[in-house]
Amino acid sequence: MSPLRIALLGFGTVGTSVVHRLTRTDAVRDLVLTGIFDRRADVKRLAHPALRGVAWTTRIEDVLVSDADVVVEAAGGLDPASGWIRDALLAGKSVVTANKQVIARDGEHLLRLAARQGRQLRFEAAIGGAMPIVRAVADGLAGDRLTRIVAILNGTTNAVLSRMDATRCSMDAAIRDAQSRGYAEQDPRLDLDGDDARAKLAILCGLAFGLRVTPTDIAARSAASVSLADVEGARRQGATIRQLAYASHDADTSTLTAWVSPVAVPRHSLFGRTTGPQNAALITGAHAGDIGVSGAGAGGDATAVAVISDLLAVARDRAAVVPPLALTTPKCIRGFGGIADFRVQISDCGFQISDSLFAEAV
Ligand code: HSE
After folding, report:
1. Residues of the chain with pLDDT > 70: what percent?
2. Which of 101, 190, 196 to mutate to test the pocket of ligand 1 (most atoms within 8 A of CB)?
């Protein structure tokens, strides 16, 4: 079988790491980079003279008519990225994307389009960086009836909160550090306010519960106002503060409870021990109980691992069909359901989420 020909959209943090993996001496067998689209291709081409044999372009049309088998969308943002994915599928290419905003808004439609076209749309990189949560929920646990997901889904906010705790620095300093390491969105408020985690959680609600959820349906409290005094107050109580994403589904009443919020968690719990850009998730099924996954959740190299894994899945079986999501709209979506603001939790010196969520050994 000839190698899979890959065109990349977007030569930013994730795109650069993907290119490194595809072109260095230990390049991944069966995958070959043939094209790069970037608005600043003319400048970036000069900065990367070693990428011989790669067609650089500033015109998306060049990618669509190229002989690439797969388009990797690493440009980010909703539009025009969503239209590029649609056009690539219509042009007969499979697509691998890291774009949570697009999958959260248009994933249902784009997956149907991909299946109609006999092509694949894969998006492991959209959630959790190298943490394989999309496969865990969509494939590995498909045999269970999933009822709850509790997770750290934003590496930037986790890096910021854990750095404040570890170094007693201000939030601004911690944000600058996360930005310099390539974790943060262009606008880091999307990380701290919970928009990024809401998009990821909305996708997971589709995969885990078969529910159509819009990110803005999910209640959110921002982590932007967490102060060093809050972090130190939590520490005195044996706790630390983490941005958690929570979703539970009551299938009998078609009720979804979903929120993203800073939460005080015990320091030695799974979530308390998740530091830096790590993500972690506890997925609960009616039959298997709690299943945990964790790992590097943000950053170019971690996200590129998920992209390469998806490319290898396409290379292994080019005729595979990624099943379209069969979604229903929940009858009722509830917000915090009695979960208090973390400051109330700390002043109460109690942790309001069931202790089983904080099991030490996962
Ligand atoms: N800004 C995102 C995060 C990038 O920090 O998790 C990975 O999706």
Report:
1. 96
2. 196
Find the 191 Cα to ligand 1 centroid distance in Å.
Answer: 7
Per-residue pLDDT tens for 123-175?
999 999 999 999 999 999 999 999 999 999 999 999 999 999 999 999 999 99
CA of 191, closest atom in ligand 1: 1
Answer yes or no: is pLDDT of 308 > 90. Answer: yes
The answer to whether the predicted template modeling score (pTM) of the entire model surpasses 0.90 is yes
CA 110 / ligand 1 centre spacing (Å): 22
All residues at 6 or more sequence positions from 316 whose CB lies less than 8 Å from its CB, including other chains:
none
Provide the pLDDT for residue 331: 98
**Residue 269 pLDDT greater than 70, yes or no:** yes
Report pLDDT for 360: 43
DSSP-assigned letter for residue 348: H
Task: Confirm if 7 and 17 have CB atoms less than 8 A apart.
Answer: no
The candidate with the shortest Cα–Cα distance to 262, out of 181, 334, 353, is 353
Q: Locate the ligand 1 atom nearest the alpha carbon of residue 159 and give its number.
A: 5
What the chain holds in terms of domains, given with CATH numbers, is 4-122+301-316 (3.40.50.720), 133-298+331-361 (3.30.360.10)
Return the structure tokens found at 197.
Answer: 């985690």
- Which tokens is 302 given? 């971690």
331 catalytic? Reply is no
pLDDT band at 323 (very low <50, low <70, confident <90, very high): confident
Q: How far is the CA of 354 from the centre of ligand 1 (A)?
A: 27
Give yes or no for a contact between 338 and 352, defined as CB atoms under 8 angstroms apart.
Answer: yes
d(CA 28, CA 32): 8
User: What pLDDT is recorded for position 251?
Assistant: 96
Residues having CB within 6 Å of any atom of ligand 1: 129, 154-156, 183-185, 191, 196, 297-298
Tell me what pLDDT residue 361 has: 36
Report the alpha-carbon distance of residue 83 to residue 95 in Å, rounded.
Answer: 12
The backbone torsions φ and ψ at residue 284, rounded to the nearest 5 degrees and listed phi first, read -110, 130
Q: Distance, CA 183 to ligand 1 centroid (Å)?
A: 6
Residue nearest atom 8 in ligand 1 by C-alpha distance: 298
Tokens of 58: 């500033």
Chain Cα centroid distance, residue 18: 16
